[in-house]
Amino acid sequence: MKILGELGVLEEDLKIRMGKMARFRNLLVHLYWKVEDREVYRIVRERLGDFDEYLGAVGRFVESSL
Length: 66
What we know:
- The protein is mainly α and about 70 residues long.
- The chain has one domain.
- It is built from four helices and no strands.
- It starts with a helix and ends with a helix.
């Protein structure tokens, strides 16, 4: 996310949110037994839109680079 932020592809807020999502993914993969089901459910309900926003930002960047 850092590189996309430096290139101006992602706004600061989205860069931070995606960084948190990456850290959560790492927790799920490496320390899954420490993750509460409740937390996974909350993220699925509240944060999936971040991926749409991410894809939109990257898509706009690619379109503007053509």
